[in-house]
Every structure is written in C-alpha cells, then in structure tokens.
Specification:
Blueprint: H1 7-26, H2 31-45, H3 57-69, H4 71-75, H5 82-93, H6 100-127, H7 132-151
C-alpha cells in the first residue's frame, strides 16, 4: 500500500507529502535534509532505485543510515538517530533556539500520518463503497432474483420443482 503506483493511491500520497513539506518548512528544517527526505520518499513510493546525490556529509550519512534501516521502517516510526543529530547541527549553525527533539517528533507525526492515510485509503477501497460497475452488477442480480421469485416454480422443469411436501 505504501508503494502502490496507482493514481487512486498516489493522489492521497502526494497530498500528504505536500503537507509534510509545508509542515517541515514551517519548523525550519534543514533545506538540504528536507529535499533528501522528499527525494527518498518519492523513490520509495515509486519503487525506484535509490540514487546517489551530492549532499553534504551530514545529510549523506543520515540518508545512508536510513537506507540501511529502510524507508518503510521510517514511515512506521523507526528513524535513524542521525535525523535528529543532523537537524540539531542545522539549528546550531543558524543560531536557532528550536528543539531537535520537537522537530523529530513532528517529522514522525507527519510520516505516521502518511502511512495511516495510505492504510485508510486502502481500506476504503477494499471495504468501502462499491465501484459503480459492482453496483450495476449487484442491481442486475437483485432484479433477476426478484423476477425468479415472482415467477415462482411454475416455469421450472418438473424435476427441478420443489416437492409438494414443502408447499
């Protein structure tokens, strides 16, 4: 479900990733770290090979460590410890008083929302409202059952009619 390329799944994914980007920009995420995160999420979702990029050593080691742990694991709440460290270094470099603890909590909350929304969307498709084609087929079936019920057993061959003991 997290890597499904169908448009019905990709549209909610893209909306959630846009929200992730906006949220992380609002809390002053290291721009390079955020771009690396967004690239890897895109590659993970599209089941594309992970590419080598020209990132700073801190971002490169963060991404490499998460590559080893896995991106599905990150979406399920298992980040590399380097995420927080790299963001802390960025906050220090720009003399921000923001907390890297709060930052990682926000990141995990947003990533969890992406995973949850994908799960909910999958369940809505699998168990929710029927597709219009299914609804039409069900209506045809109901109509045929109603016609058979109204007609009764009189049109059936004698061998298929219920015995008189059941009338």
């Amino acid at each position: 479900m997290l890597t499904c390329p169908l448009p019905d799944v990709t549209n909610p994914w893209n909306d959630d990733v846009d929200t992730l980007q906006e949220t992380m920009e609002a809390i002053d995420t290291d721009p390079e770290l955020l771009q690396a995160l967004l690239l890897r999420l895109s590659q993970f979702h599209g089941q594309q090979p992970l590419t080598e990029e020209d990132w700073s050593p801190a971002v490169k080691s963060t991404i490499a460590e998460q590559d080893k742990i896995g991106w599905k694991a990150l979406l399920e709440g298992l980040p590399s410890r380097r995420w927080r460290l790299t963001q802390h270094q960025y906050y220090t470099s720009v003399a921000s008083e923001r907390s890297s603890k709060r930052w990682i909590a926000t990141l995990l909350q947003q990533l969890g929302k992406i995973a949850w929304d994908q799960w909910e969307h999958r369940n809505a498709i699998a168990n929710g409202e029927k597709h219009p084609r299914q609804l039409r087929a069900l209506q045809v079936l109901h109509n045929q059952i109603a016609t058979e019920y109204i007609t009764g057993a009189d049109d059936l061959p004698a061998s298929d009619r219920p015995s008189s003991a059941f009338h």
